[in-house]
Amino acid sequence: MSECLLEASDLTMRFGGLLAVDQMSLKIMPGEIVSMIGPNGAGKTTVFNCLTGFYKATSGNIRFKGQSIEGLPGFKIARLGVIRTFQNVRLFKGMTALENLLVAQHRKLNTGLLAGLFKTPDFRKSEAEAIAKAEFWLEKVGLTEFANREAGNLAYGQQRRLEIARCMVTNPELLMLDEPAAGLNPNETAELDELISDLRRDHGVTVLLIEHDMKLVMDISDRIYVINQGRPLTSGTPDEVRNHPEVIKAYLGES
Amino acid sequence: MKSLRFAPAALSAVVLLVLTSLMLGIRMESEGTSLIVTSADSETLALIAAGALVVFLFQLFRSGIDNSLSGVKSVIPSVSPDKLLSMTKGKSTRTTLICFAVAALMIWPFMVSRGAVDLATLALIYVMLGLGLNIVVGLAGLLDLGYVGFYAVGAYSYALLNQYFGLDFWSSLVMGGMLAAFFGFILGFPVLRLRGDYLAIVTLGFGEIIRILLNNWTALTGGPNGISQIPKPTLFGLEFGRRAKEEGNVPFHEYFGIAYSSEYKVIFLYILAVLLVILTLFVINRLLRMPIGRAWEALREDDIACRSLGLNPTAIKLSAFTIGAGFAGFAGTFFAARQGFISPESFTFIESAIILAIVVLGGMGSQLGVILAAVIMTVLPEFAREFQEYRMLMFGLMMVCMMVWRPEGLLPMKRPHIKTKKTRSEPDDEVTATPVAGGA
Question: Domain A6-81+172-252 belongs to what architecture?
């Protein structure tokens, strides 16, 4: 089973009396685009939070590339290459778009105190590389013109794209997007669709996605997990899921 | 009538009456073994009544007063920091300006009285402390109420190292800074997982622990008597006293063949303080442009996002805490050398409060603002000597006024942004092409 990129089994998360996630299992192969769908409050974001170490799962196993990661703090999981976005965009609003991307590269920069104080050639080089990389990704998500603008002043769709770019500068292996299309207009959603497929094709990232926009989900996903009330309902290819009676029932109610 | 609010006004007056008559109107006197409650003299009671009336009237006409005050607000002139910065835009003009400022600072002490130079030195110590705390509070957003503890560590490490090991000022300056930074690290390690108010309380406690420890460890620190006869700094081994304390040393004035004057020492201390402040400013300016400075700001804005990107929040906070403490250590060492005498009394909580007030008054994160505020906070009390008793009152009033009219501080922070040259034009000038998808 070592070829799995991320594997979670029997993941359970309990908040007091509320069972938010119940016996969820999930497998993601390298290079896949996997979606998680389900009605509001189904526990999708909770699964995300457990996988990325923001919540400590009540029980269950999470393995990333064969290595057990449950119980690790969020920043350590992020360092392994599991990078996420947030449902409500979390940018550093007072910093410029470019700086947002530089902060994300913090780990790879020359952070030596003396090197920075005296601007050693090494330090300049690493800064220049970081800026070049940030510029590349700004170009990629179409924000070059807005590089020097404060992130909080960008339009909503631009903020969404900047958040994805901010993930990408860290060279993630698994990119986890929490409702990336929320609040976008149809044009922007189409662009996002293209961007995500592009990320997989050209940059080799695996994508796990929570989304309500069915067109986007059906379009780009290799596989889909359906969650309802914390419990896994079914999983499969878009076509299988689309025609699954339970899914129709969960979404449209009992007829 | 809606604008005359009768009930709330009456309520405030009653609250005032109850509180003041309990606190001021009644007096307890001990007679033998028993306590007797007596009412205060009629004058006090009349004053209380007058006070209640004033509160009542103020509350009654409050909306009207507020309106007329808001008129005042717009009248008050304000120096826009943008303007100040735009004046110093070009790099070369900026450098020239800085050179002129430094030159002026260096020449100035030779033209004024000894007292003024001494006061300026004190102000510079507070500038250093303010800048150091600014790293912790203004940049990293950690409320530290025990900053004076690190100041004390710096001061006492020079005093003790000198007393027990005979170390001179210069090596102690390095040691004092490092020791204070070490204390900051040790304290920060367990407490930095706390946030906001909890962190403030723990640091407050730490500041007090240091002071009480210094006060009670009589064998080592001399307790409340403090440590005296701390030597002044030397200039490459030249002392500034009339006679050299150490054998074989030549005092400054003899070496240069000039007449002795006690002013040399004061001016030397002043210049030393200026140099230390310049060093501090340089380091902080570099830090702001370094990855660590960006990480501080990012952490202040959103620590969850930081964690999701693989930044370790504790390590980043710890670095701010440690560096800030280090600067307090430098300031403390210098303070001990300047005073020649230190005791735990110099490191009470009120000092922490003043340093924090400097940071808030100047504008969180703003270096120019902190310098200005430190000067105001040290120089104003000297001018207002007659109002000694009302110092705290004026201090409070100043804070309230500032919160009303300049809530972001005297000179709010303008952070240096890293710019990319790839942008063709300032985006603000052109029409935004992408629609704002706010309502979608």
Answer: 3-Layer(aba) Sandwich (3.40)
